[in-house]
């Protein structure tokens, strides 16, 4: 998340912060303004001219101008996931400024292209437009972009699934590198804009996101979560990371030592790391990790945060806390210098201190929503479409046919929280109308009226927009509402009187004033809850849904004068729901009269899962599924277009509908892109970036992050998914021949011949996977190593070549805390998806055999091989992981060279004391030691406990069983 600065406040803020203008370079200008000097020298020169107060002020997101040096205000953070976000027309100095930028497909749609060259072009366009917006108003649109999101889509129920790329780190790393490098612009010394990777680390749930801990065993952390962030940083395609709200192994990511010790180790470049919005205050509030804000701010700066996103535009609380931390010795001026140096390095690379603004300084607003970018948006949206099913030649559609375009998303385009406003809209209906001989349409939603059963009065909505109230006793347009079903009983009610949605926007009454469900608190959500007597209660399900501020007082009650308010269910007004017209009947009638029916269903991005709201199921809304079934029955030539941002359990549709296309919410050109695919101008080649499961029962709890132990994602899942990772169909067919894996240099050259064996030109996404036959540890079922999207005319053949580095086959060896390549046979597989392997061969990799575990040296408890019931926690508030256990929980160290130990020492912490048992072979195996653990005074008060060991010898599995509530950081077997 990041705070939104109202456009109307921009001019006031500009004056308050003092938007100084850097003067042109002159002979007597200081060295920092001389672009011919080395970057480090320029940074050091400017840093040396700043006072301590000035440096401290720069630690806030809104770094103020320093007029005496001619330094402008600098804002960190402009959202740019799929275009510059929160862009809209606004008035400045009496003039209307056009600021509707290009909106590309949502991030998960960008990744579904599997086309890094295309995504680099998209990133470049976003970087251009960021410059264009910045040229208009640098207060609102800074050049430090908070994108892309590289959190792995480990759980398809994550509310922010639309923001990420894939459940796979290789694909995520490739797409994020392409997008980031496009944003940066390619100049070796300057940045067009500065991309920041979100959100470090393991942030894949929204429920209690600021207090939940993502527990990552070392292999999961290194092989999976870190692996998504490393590629873009290592390729210098990102300029920093944003620390996420959540904790990892008990420590808030805002103070994670990884920010300095891991992330900065991946590149020689300076990185500028930022906090998420209000996260600094979470450390003392919801997380309670530090007692005071000076302690918290000192800790996060020392950990590697360079910019604090908190208190909106008001930097005073941050300045006060940091100065207090300096006065108390919690922070040194050198710590402040490090953070400010990182900011200055970024600003120099952005050209801010160059006399001409650097190579990108002359980009103007003319790039915003340019014809070239509109064309690119259409191309990208079409390439992102995934064809999930096509039986009996249902697609492509033939020209000259009569088409019924029906469904709640047939003639609308929705934006999301991190989207810009659409400069124009081409809906699916619009796109098809340009191609079909004739078109009929229906939204397929019921038009209803709600009548108070006690008074006979209907709820009415004024045509001009305003408060709803009970008034009329006869039906007119002001009493009618279109009820859009978004699943799990949640409806959005659109007033027929004015086309606006019913909202609780003024926090007091219900109004018909919203253009669409939107905002941070989505207040356009209602449920009609049927009672035993057949009447309905109107349940307001907006703001209260997430925060429960209204508690049970979320039901509509009408006063004697007809005004509406919220009360309890027992006190609520009972209504009769009258169906004025059936959306299903209308859609069926249109479908019956057409040659083909296209049903457009899916999600509303502000309702069906988004930031701060996870999904609790993966189903298509019941009303939408009923619509699909009815239309399919009415017209066998039915095509379903599913437009949403995540995997959906469309089992019935897959079994019964001839053709299915999936697209994310793809921006202004959605309708053109869909028509291009539906009519065959574009041969679909999008591929799924996640596993689509058949049921939510196929995935574990959303808070369980151990993908290895819980068989998560295509890497470890052994079931039969609805659609596998990498899946997608084409209008043509492809053949694979002659797979070879030849040793070369630091690995293997893998080549395969791919032929278009069909009658249409098309793209194939060739995917390279490996599987290791034998290993000390559990290995993935298969793992993506590389991919390439290739275009082929009918009958044409190309040779696709990948280079597979031996080092890429390494695993994280917990026995020695390092990357290790084992000696093993690997399957090398190529195909069109993870489940459609077309050619395979094997390679024999020479590595090493991981030796028996040696516990005669101190061994971290977290480096276990297996576990049950324990939690991973923080050793100290600064660094280190430990294991917290209670009665009967355990960790195991496998394949241990026991020798003949006489004793064991353990680093322990406990408030109440207890013991740990060492057992052989199993958690209930032979007891060889009991170590008494004293009460140490707290979970961060570590002591050494010892015990005698008897009867342990040879090689075996050692289980550490907890008795009592305690923490273990390490243990050592002694002679």
Automatic annotation (TrEMBL):
InterPro entries: Actin-crosslinking, BXL, CBM6, Cellulose-bd_IV, Fn3-like, Galactose-bd-like_sf, GH, Glyco_hydro_3_C
Originating species: Microbispora oryzae
Position of the signal peptide: 1-26
Sequence ranges assigned to domain CBM6 in this UniProt record: 857-974
MF annotations from Gene Ontology: alpha-L-arabinofuranosidase activity; beta-glucosidase activity; carbohydrate binding; xylan 1,4-beta-xylosidase activity
Record keywords: Hydrolase, Signal
Family affiliation: Belongs to the glycosyl hydrolase 3 family.
Protein name: Exo-alpha-(1->6)-L-arabinopyranosidase
